[in-house]
């Protein structure tokens, strides 16, 4: 495999994998399973009412494993669980300038769930990109607080 050209790397809008979001039915049981199996401890727990989730984060390197439980059956994660069962819900990528990334994706014709950034957990700003834009994978773009 050849190394990418410097210009390609410099033009990347993604800075890191922020998290892998995993939908679960029983958040507390899933947390205990991750504790026992991997010897990890949660670093953050938060309820995000406007997204209809409660989350627990485990740090892994520079990224997180995000366990998500729906706060109700009519939330995005609740519908996902009803349709697909437990499992990977989305991939979160870290970006430095979320409005710029959304504008660039829009120009490319990538279907967006969120046209503008909105508050996420941990004080971040987030936006979701429709799975149709990335071969069936729901993508969350995450900008860390300044």
3D architecture notes:
The protein has one domain: 2,3-Dihydroxybiphenyl 1,2-Dioxygenase, domain 1, CATH 3.10.180. Helices cover 25% and strands 36% of the residues. It is built from four helices and eight strands. It has an eight-stranded mixed beta sheet. A hairpin with a 4-residue loop joins strand 2 and strand 3. It starts with 5 loop residues before the first helix and ends with a strand.
Proportion of helical residues: 10-25%
Report the portion of residues in β strands. Answer: 35-45%
Please state the average pLDDT score: 93
Q: What is the first-to-last residue Cα distance?
A: 36 Å
Number of strands: 8
Numbering strands along the chain, what is their spatial order in the largest sheet?
A: 2-3-4-1-5-8-7-6
Structural class: alpha+beta
Overall tally of structural domains: 1
CATH homologous superfamily classification? 2,3-Dihydroxybiphenyl 1,2-Dioxygenase, domain 1
* Poorly predicted sequence stretches spanning 5 or more consecutive residues: 1-10
Radius of gyration: 16 Å
Short structural description:
Helix content is 25%, strand content 36%.
Topology:
Layout: H1 6-10, E1 14-23, H2 27-38, E2 44-48, E3 53-60, E4 63-70, H3 76-84, E5 87-95, H4 98-107, E6 118-119, E7 125-129, E8 139-143
Key phrases:
alpha+beta, 2,3-Dihydroxybiphenyl 1,2-Dioxygenase, domain 1, eight-stranded mixed sheet, 4 helices
């Amino acid at each position: 495999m050849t190394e990418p050209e410097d210009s390609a790397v410099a033009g990347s809008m993604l800075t890191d994998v922020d998290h892998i979001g995993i939908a679960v039915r029983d958040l507390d049981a899933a947390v205990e399973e991750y504790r026992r199996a991997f010897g990890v401890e949660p670093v953050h727990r938060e309820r995000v009412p406007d997204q209809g989730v409660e989350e627990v984060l485990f740090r892994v390197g520079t990224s997180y494993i995000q366990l998500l439980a729906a706060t109700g059956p009519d939330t995005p994660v609740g519908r996902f669980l009803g349709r697909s069962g437990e499992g990977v819900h989305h991939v979160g990528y870290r970006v430095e300038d979320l409005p710029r990334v959304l504008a660039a994706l829009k120009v490319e014709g990538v279907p967006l769930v969120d046209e503008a950034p909105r508050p996420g957990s941990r004080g971040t700003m987030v936006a979701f990109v429709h799975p149709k834009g990335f071969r069936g994978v729901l993508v969350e773009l995450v900008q860390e607080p300044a």
